[in-house]
Model the fold of this input.
Amino acid sequence: MYNSIMLLFTISLLMLSCSSNNINEEKMDTLLRQKVNLLMKESPSERTDFIGKCNIPIDQEVRSEIENLGIEIQTVIGDIFTASGNAVQIKELTRLEYIVSLELSVERKPF
Done:
């Protein structure tokens, strides 16, 4: 009985860890990851701007799926988009298989 329960527990754990629905912080660049982790601790509802890249063109279906997470998309060009979201929403976005990378949007000043 004990062995059966342990086997079931181990299989369940393996299935959860192999799932593509896990948060994948490696999709975030270092600056965005640091910002998201800081916001999670200090101000989880504060929104931050970022740039995302997908491995497919962003059509209305993809856009809707992203926006359903609470992400606000500003612009879309092919497979790249600019958006804003809070820390939880950005982490949830990394679960989507077609999201390749997310980068913190940085304001650049001219020389």
Observations:
- Confidence is low (pLDDT under 50) at residues 12-20.
